[in-house]
Amino acid sequence: MAAENKKQDKREAILNAAESLFAKHGYDGVTLRAIAKEAGVDVALANYHFGPKRDLFDAVLLRRAQILNSWRLEALEATVQNAAPNPPQVKDIIRAYFEPLLKRSQVQEPGWKSYYALIAYVNSSPEWGGTLMTQFFDPMIHRFLAVLKTALPGVPDKSMYWGYHCLSGALTLAFAQTGRIDHLSDDLCKSDDLPDACDYIVDFVAAGFSDMIAASQKETATL
Amino acid sequence: MAAENKKQDKREAILNAAESLFAKHGYDGVTLRAIAKEAGVDVALANYHFGPKRDLFDAVLLRRAQILNSWRLEALEATVQNAAPNPPQVKDIIRAYFEPLLKRSQVQEPGWKSYYALIAYVNSSPEWGGTLMTQFFDPMIHRFLAVLKTALPGVPDKSMYWGYHCLSGALTLAFAQTGRIDHLSDDLCKSDDLPDACDYIVDFVAAGFSDMIAASQKETATL
DNA sequence: CTAGAATTTCAACAATTGTTGAAGACGTAA
DNA sequence: TTACGTCTTCAACAATTGTTGAAATTCTAG
Asked: Which of these CATH numbers, 1.10.357.10, 3.40.640.10, 2.30.39.10, 1.20.210.10, describes B62-221?
């Protein structure tokens, strides 16, 4: 059981350690020495593989962003195909955005859990949120919004964008698993029960989007 | 115009500088020297007034939390009185939660803007979110949820808590003003137009809560 | 003005930071 | 074996970190 280190999985051990620690304490709250210790390697090795600290941070983010994007686009296209030639239901589109986070036993994988918390950190940070999230996720999101618009004809773009912002805030906060809702609800709701959280959030968000149709119709009616 | 320092507003200058910098870069991303420089005082003064760094962070959070809580409770009770003896409308309750953030020309005050971004950072951080937010805001939130339940009879508590979690995520992300939605919407939506943001988020969140009634009725009907 | 308390600055501390260059260990192909 | 390129460690660097004790300044009573 000793000497299980294959060839150079130390590189990935560094990524995993960095992912976990950045998720917990943020970029500046983590030292390269802490990462190296968690990964069981020397401090200098992180710099050898990834360059400066900031580049390691980007590498951690990028690794799973690509996978997640492809999973979400897959689920979205399947939803579109499923409903064709009609536009899909709003709730099914929202589900296509949420369910890739849960499938393939991701919930059990601690790496993905850390990654979700990390995304929450990046998303709500004035330092990273504006640029990094855009860079990694916007093309996928635009495709998602385009499909959502077919299900919500006549809804102004501004409502759609703010609606997505609400979705994004609710989703990232829930997946950050801060333990907040556990305290607030006296353990009626559990931060780490992501499938359960998804059920509720999907309903909430779908209702928020669906209501835009009624609102936009009421608006045009008064003209 | 020189020598405008009154008595000991240096203490507040430190709080303001810390607030602004913590909001931008998080707890670990800010040094006491950066705070002191921004405040125009010596490094040691922060420690003299507030003790260790962590206590300064708490002091920054606490200063406006108390004010915000009282404003929100005021607005909530006014809403209740206004609708009595009937329960208020869902949207009016949500508005009572949002509008204190905008009133009294807070939008212009950079201090409050920084504070909102700081709350977003704390809220989504696994390190602070579970404990600090609970400590500062939970009593006010419980009163808010109690009133909301009168407007949404029969809705299960679990739905209510997850609904609040969605509200909280959407609100804090928007008020973090990361510039994210500006990029995503090609400047159709502006991060720093908080009143505009509130209009859209209030509608979205109110719809999410209101839909819970229909859902819970449909559920009991199938039994 | 004077004494004493509160505030502010100065200078320095031990510890930690990201990064680097040289040396060592490993794997592979001749 | 030898040689060579990749991976890993070691040791150390200059800079920065939070914190502190003593000195200097300012404020407030008497």
From this structure: 1.10.357.10
pLDDT-derived band at B92, boundaries 50, 70, 90: very high
Q: Do A121 and B120 touch (CB under 8 A)?
A: no
Q: Report pLDDT for B222.
A: 53
Q: How long, in residues, is chain A?
A: 223
Domain A8-51 falls under CATH 1.20.1630.10: no
Closest by alpha carbon to B200, among B189, B216, B184, B186?
B189
Contact of B168 with chain A, judged by CB distance below 8 Å, is answered with yes
B161 in A contact zone (CB under 8 Å)? yes
**Rounded percentage of chain A residues whose pLDDT exceeds 70:** 91
- Residues with Cβ within 8 Å of A45's Cβ and at least 6 positions away in sequence, in order, are A10, A14, A36
* CB-based contact B205:A159 (threshold 8 Å): no
Q: What value does the mean pLDDT take over residues A43-48? A: 95
What DSSP letter does each residue of chain A carry, written as one string?
A: ------SSTHHHHHHHHHHHHHHHH-STT--HHHHHHHHTS-HHHHHHHH-SHHHHHHHHHHHHHHHHHHHHHHHHHHHHHHHTTSPPPHHHHHHHHHGGGTTTTTTT-HHHHHHHHHHHHHHT-TTTIIIIIHHHHHHHHHHHHHHHHHHSTT--HHHHHHHHHHHHHHHHHHHH--SHHHHHTTTSS-TT-HHHHHHHHHHHHHHHHHHHHHHHHHHHHT-
Minimal Cβ distance to B24: which of A126, A134, A197: A126
Report the distance separating Cα B80 and Cα B74, nearest Å.
Answer: 10
- Quick one: closest CA in A to B162, which residue? A200
CA angle at residue B106 from B100 to B111, to 5 degrees?
120
Estimate in Å the CA A42 to C1' C16 gap, whole number.
16
CA distance A172 to A167: 8
Summarised one tens digit per residue, pLDDT across range B123-176 is 999 998 889 999 999 999 999 999 999 999 999 999 999 999 999 999 999 999
| Widest CA span in chain A | 76
- Work out how many CB contacts closer than 8 A connect A with B: 235
* Residue A4 pLDDT exceeds 70: no
Q: For the domain covering B7-51, report its CATH number.
A: 1.10.10.60
For strand C, which nucleotides have at least one atom less than 7 Å from a protein CB? 7-12, 16-22, 27
Q: Domain A63-221: what homologous superfamily?
A: Tetracycline Repressor, domain 2 (1.10.357.10)
Q: Do the chains contact at A184 and B25, CB–CB below 8 Å?
A: no
